[in-house]
Prior knowledge:
The protein is an alpha/beta fold. It folds into two domains: 17-183, P-loop containing nucleotide triphosphate hydrolases (Rossmann fold); 191-302, Conserved Hypothetical Protein Ylqf, Chain: A, domain 2 (Orthogonal Bundle), CATH 1.10.1580.10. The protein has helices at 8-12, 20-31, 54-58, 75-87, 103-115, 117-121, 141-148, 191-199, 210-224, 226-233, 237-245, 250-264, 276-288, and strands at 36-42, 62-68, 91-94, 129-135, 168-172, 175-178, 182-183, 268-269, 273-274.
Amino acid sequence: MNEDTKSLSSTSINWYPGHMAKTKRQIAEDLKLIDIVIEILDARIPIASQNPDINKLIQNKKRIIVLNKSDLADKNQNEKWIRYFKNKGDLAILVDSNSGKGIKECINAIRKCYEAETYVQKGRIGKSIRIMILGIPNVGKSSFINRISKKASAQVGNKPGITRQKQWIKVDDNIELMDTPGVLWPKFENEQVALNLAYTGTIKDDILQTIEIGFQLLKFLVKNYRKNIIERYKLDPDQIHKIMEQDLEENKLVLAILDEIGKKRGALISGGYVDQEKTAGIILDDFRNGKLGEITLEQVHKT
């Protein structure tokens, strides 16, 4: 635990493999064929999972924001994020691509755009509306595509003016979906954004130290979702309270709780000491798999 977390954002900033300029050009070309963009965000980190250049990239295209993995996020915060985006003039929809929750609402929102006056003026009535999925890695783009297309690989096929490799999936009679999503890149604007992306597994674990990421996540959870930690690891609430009442710096208090979790999980090394790296990995895995309950890492009042 001696590593300085201040280096985190700088070490991870080059995580996204190159070719960004090429990727951006490809998305810009694809967008010429598209009527509506569906931007997929992770409901647990709506800001960190949003590409900062998205508005410039899509320009005047209509956009629907999907807060995916909403089943893993704090329900109270989910509603606050919906209002947050609404206040910015954006339509946001809560979705769980695994269960299909929110998919019908997305299709209805697409249809409303289809029926909008702008499309009447364009002479598009009677023609399918074309949509494209955009988002950074690990937000569930493929799961969303599979769910909204009912996993039917029914491709509409090539159309005049469309390059041969562009394939379209028929969602319903009026909606066609480009079968490959546009992969955007995250922007590491500060250390906290990098941390949030690391917690959710967007940054590959082999780039960052598991013990550091797990420790920083636990620090956040102790502060904001302590009950979840106590319940998951069957910790003694009184003992945790005593630990937190000690006149010690925050890192030492959190480390003491990490040790308690390690003992409960049997993550021990010779001499009866806690294997802190293994324990940190357990906490990370439990969070990513939803075993710590509904948790939102970016909270509206703190953005």
